[in-house]
């Protein structure tokens, strides 16, 4: 479904991705793990068109999207749930959700999808007219997930969905993402918590200093000695 082939990205003159390749199959749950600054968010930004790779190629369902606009990429079915939530603080909860489907015109289905976000996250329904910036961190995370789903994506890119959440909210968020995947949406998720990321996924890629250094099934990666010592805190 998604093929990232040898991409290089830079900020100004500094190269941060040095030939990253990964792939995600239809219906899969794939995670991207690695230390701070390894280039995980940059990889997601390149896929969703927020950053243009200086080399390499990205294809989605056979179409080259390397230089496509973020709008075109969203239209094709890729939604990005960014790190740090990035909700629009002065807009209401409902307006934030509606922005998630600004390209859609199927009004009736959009209203049903809005209701299903409120069913899933009742607190968002209770606060639908409240400015998003006044929600708690966990509520903003729910809103960011709901907003990404409002475009009815085929593939969702989640960037650190557990960041800053209390442990019970972390679990709830992960369960929800697994459910979204079980219902047929393909997921590519960046996650700092390597253990959780490897336990949940079908396959994972390890990014180190802008390069993919290891890939495999989550269950195999969990038993890899390098992963265990460097990312799982085991000796
Ligand atoms: P983290 O887990 O800390 O979010 P990451 O793996 O997602 O890390 P990136 O955010 O992709 O890492 O950053 C990769 C490198 O690019 C880092 O060295 C970072 O400082 C640098 N970088 C990221 N964004 C910018 C930017 N807008 N301008 C300049 N450098 C940047």
Automatic annotation (TrEMBL):
Pfam families on file: ABC_tran
Keyword Nucleotide-binding: yes
Keywords: Amino-acid transport, ATP-binding, Nucleotide-binding, Transport
SUPFAM superfamilies, A to Z: P-loop containing nucleoside triphosphate hydrolases
GO biological process, one term: L-amino acid transport
ATP-binding keyword on record: yes
Any one Gene Ontology molecular-function term assigned to this protein's record: branched-chain amino acid transmembrane transporter activity
Family to which this protein belongs: Belongs to the ABC transporter superfamily.
Protein name: ABC transporter ATP-binding protein
């Amino acid at each position: 479904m998604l093929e990232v082939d040898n991409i290089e990205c830079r900020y100004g003159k500094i190269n941060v991705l040095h030939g990253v390749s990964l792939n995600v199959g239809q219906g899969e749950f794939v995670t991207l793990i690695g230390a701070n600054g390894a280039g995980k968010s940059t990889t997601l930004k390149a896929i969703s068109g927020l950053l243009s790779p200086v080399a390499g190629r990205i294809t989605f369902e056979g179409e080259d999207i390397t230089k496509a606009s973020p709008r075109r990429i969203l239209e094709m079915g890729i939604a990005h749930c960014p790190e740090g939530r990035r909700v629009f603080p002065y807009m209401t909860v409902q307006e934030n959700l509606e922005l998630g489907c600004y390209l859609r015109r199927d009004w009736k289905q959009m209203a049903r999808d809005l209701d299903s976000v409120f069913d899933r996250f009742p607190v968002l329904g209770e606060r639908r007219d409240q400015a998003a910036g006044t929600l708690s961190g966990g509520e903003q995370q729910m809103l960011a997930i709901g907003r990404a789903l409002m475009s009815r994506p085929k593939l969702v890119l989640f960037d650190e969905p557990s960041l800053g959440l209390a442990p019970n909210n972390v679990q709830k968020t992960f369960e929800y993402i697994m459910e979204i995947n079980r219902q047929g949406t393909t997921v590519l998720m960046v996650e700092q918590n390597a253990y959780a990321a490897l336990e949940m996924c079908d396959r994972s890629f390890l990014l180190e200093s802008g390069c993919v250094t290891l890939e495999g099934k989550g269950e195999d990666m969990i038993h890899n000695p390098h992963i265990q010592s460097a990312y799982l805190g085991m000796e």
